[in-house]
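input
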Amino acid sequence: MTLTRRNRLSRKPKPLTRVALFSLLSLLLLSGCSLKQPEIRLSQASNEINFWIGETGPTGPLFSGPQQYPFICMTVNEGLGQPLIDNQEGIGNAVFRETIFGPWIYGKPIGYSRNCSIKTRVDYYYFSGKHDAFLPLKNRGRVPSDIERIIVDDKEIDFIVRVERGSINRFLYSIAMLAPYPESTTRPDNLNNSAWNNRLVYKLQGGVGIGHWQGQLPMNKSQALHYQSLKRGYAVAFSSGTSSATHYNIKLAEETALMLKRHFIETYGRPDFTIGIGGSGGAIQQYMIAQNNPDLLDGIIPQLSYPDMLTQISYVADCDLLERYFDSQFKTMPDSKWGNWQFRAEIEGVSASSSTIKSSKYNNPYAPTPGGSTCSHGWRGHTQTIMNPYVSHPAYQKALTLFRYPDAVKQDIKWTHWNDLANIYPQDAHGFAMNTWDNTGVQYGLQALRNNLITTDEFLQLNACVGSWKTAAQMRLGDYPWNTNADKNKPDPWDHANMNLKPKCKFGTPAPRASATAIAIQAANDSGNLFNGNVNLPIIDVRWYLDPTLDIHHALGSFSARARIINKNGNAKNHAIWVAGCDKTDPETLDRVCSYDPTDDALDVMQQWLSTGMPITAVDSCFDAQGDLLASGLEVWNGILDDKDAGACTRQFTVHSTPRMMAGEDIKGDTLKCELKSIDSAIQDGTYHPIQLTQQQTQRLREIFPTGVCNY
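output
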């Protein structure tokens, strides 16, 4: 593979014990000092990243643009000590004097760390069958009695793993590899890598992060110490910079992955191939990296996937707009159809539960109970995290204070996804990064109208009153639960304080819609933050069927990605979709048990695909909860992307829709801002067929959509 690119405290405070300090920092999502170490910097022109124990990795950047500030170090929280001092000018995280009890966080800082670097280190872990987890191996000369034995290349060996940890591009990284035999760590040349199968898994992690921190390095069997890969002899690379829980800057993730892989090659040698594995946001990163830098990964196994984050938020942000409207109608008219969750699902498109769900996210007193939808139980809270510049975890603020960031710096942070990528998106007149969310012309419930599930007047009222989200400059912290200091007796579960609404929208002035600028959308495209389907490497997209539990990882994501691949390449021969059932999905508690993990089998099939060519098992498939194959082949998902009779897997696992699809968008779901057509054109081309609109209803449509409706 060729890499081408590219407080006051009470009197006489006592020092915290190390345990107490770590507990405090862990609670606050903090970090925190060792002696200053010269950094090895990587120039943009260099392809080499060569460093070892006691040295530090490069701080970047290569091509991602100016680095974000402030940036909270997490090295103490991850058990790696305080970050290295790199300045005395007060820039970055305060570093404190070390005592026998730990860092003296009450005293004057001895320096500051802007880059959050640490010295590279190597430790050993073993897999405990008793605890079903990797545990630190403190004495290599004494093999624990509970160690698991594995077979690699027909040899039975102790499941012992060497883990290199350090910092690259300001993020924490790890490289794990089987190391059951005696070795010296003085130089990479002295390592015994004979148990390594000469292949690499790059493990990516999901979540929703808005930046301004280093992220975490989870030393567990599903992330940095990926059990399924290590037991097969793969090396595993991981970085907190390729976790979407840290940030959603795809360019920065690509850059970080590139730097880490270059270091891997310099230290351990070039792998035969590299496989990406990761779920949710980790799946998005795989699709995007495969598109934007196809030489970085040779094959990918996205789990619980979406195509990208931006087109996902298009319909996610619709959810609370729709739920607020439904709840307000239900409150004033308890007998209305909006008290029926199935009717709501006809507008939202996402899976609706049975009416037996007893929980209500954020204890919403306005929604009909029992019951719920993916919008109400799954997606609630995500819009605020992504779009409201004043919504952040309280731990961020406490960490910034502890690490002595000035008040002006803290107050200047704008907590939105787009401001996290402030070097990519243009700023508005108020200094906020321009938002790409748009619902101008979107006719919510259009499909329900066509199917005679709602009346024309209900359709018109819904679209007149649904409204939109305010711009970042217009938003505020809002009410409870978004503002924890607000009155808990006056909750705003949808954050309607930050919506554009009109009190007399039913017959009077409609609530305004949001309109994204063309320049912001162009920036999203140019920066590679949108998945357009231009991927040609082997893909096995795996997921558990979680739709019945109102999980946000609904099955649609895999098929949206496929539709884009077909649209771009004319076919999707390189794209297999595997869906597995769960042992239990509880309609009341939404709990689920999914014992079969298709990733295991997908990794074996991918290895064969990359080693000897595409195997016959690299095809669309579905499995039962025990992992037994239900059906496989070219036609098992018929009826989702075409008009054919439903295939065997389609019949087994229903694929639901989105609010935008119920408004006319196709399954690709790749439209950030739709092309508009006039109301007259919409009537003439059959948009509302078989509904016949009266003259008065047509006029109302023109009032609701003065610039036209989406020409999906």
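quick obs: Residues 533-661 form one domain.
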